[in-house]
């Protein structure tokens, strides 16, 4: 399953990171994502509605939904029960990683130093989230990790937008980039679906090139 999930992230190239406050947003959001072919999404569990939104997006056969901001091992169980196909965490917490391995759900823990990349590698993980990417040295830092530690792929996230995503996607070590720019929390709260659809379509263009 890990290989399949990673292949789908690779084919999507861009993974929207969603912070959704209102469960009613799930249906129009799912439509905007599917229409633009952004078929992998990370639903963060940092809002009260997060788990319910995750469940609704996971119910859509055209989407591959993962859980983000997973900080506690119990959240891994909740996420898997809600249908999450992968788990993302802002940092590398061995307790969270171990729970994911026990349940057999692919996990991308956050890494921002070579030591953390090595810890992810020691767990046998094929990929990790480079977070926060821009703030942690951006593409040059990523290149340095990749040249020293070649057998792990990265999903850079944090500070990435329409203008700098391509620079990451050009890197062979990059599986796909994550970010909230195509469906930011404030636009979701305002139900600005036309704007979100436009931003999603633009983000999907990055994948096509
Ligand atoms: C995350 O949790 O991955 C970040 O909130 C996404 O970062 P961004 O908002 O800078 O895209």
TrEMBL record:
UniProt xrefs under CDD domains: KDPG_aldolase
Gene3D superfamilies membership: Aldolase class I
EC assignment: 4.1.2.14
Pathway involvement of the protein, from the record: Carbohydrate acid metabolism
One Pfam family it belongs to: Aldolase
Any GO molecular function: 2-dehydro-3-deoxy-phosphogluconate aldolase activity
Lyase listed as a keyword: yes
Keywords tagged on the record: Carbohydrate metabolism, Lyase
PANTHER family the record matches: 2-DEHYDRO-3-DEOXY-6-PHOSPHOGALACTONATE ALDOLASE-RELATED, 2-KETO-3-DEOXY-6-PHOSPHOGLUCONATE ALDOLASE
The protein's assembly and partners: Homotrimer.
Family assignment from sequence similarity: Belongs to the KHG/KDPG aldolase family.
Protein name per Swiss-Prot or TrEMBL: 2-dehydro-3-deoxy-phosphogluconate aldolase
Organism annotation: Actinacidiphila cocklensis
């Amino acid at each position: 399953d890990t290989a399949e999930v990673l292949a789908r992230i690779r084919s999507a190239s861009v993974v929207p990171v969603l912070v959704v406050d209102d469960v009613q947003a799930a249906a129009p959001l799912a439509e905007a994502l599917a229409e633009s072919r952004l078929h992998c999404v990370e639903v963060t569990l940092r809002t009260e509605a997060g788990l319910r939104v995750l469940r609704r997006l996971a119910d859509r056969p055209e989407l591959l939904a993962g859980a983000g901001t997973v900080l506690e091992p119990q959240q891994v169980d909740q996420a898997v029960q809600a249908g999450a196909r992968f788990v993302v965490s802002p940092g590398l917490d061995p307790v969270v990683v171990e729970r994911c391995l026990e349940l057999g759900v692919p996990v991308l823990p956050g890494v921002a130093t070579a030591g953390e990349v090595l810890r992810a590698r020691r767990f046998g993980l094929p990929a990790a989230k480079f977070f926060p990417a821009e703030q942690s040295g951006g593409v040059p830092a990523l290149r340095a990790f990749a040249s020293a530690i070649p057998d792990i792929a990265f999903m850079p996230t944090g500070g990435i937008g329409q203008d700098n995503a391509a620079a990451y996607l050009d890197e062979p070590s990059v599986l796909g980039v994550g970010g909230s720019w195509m469906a930011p929390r404030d636009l979701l709260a305002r139900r600005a679906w036309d704007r979100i659809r436009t931003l999603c379509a633009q983000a999907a263009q990055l994948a096509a090139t």
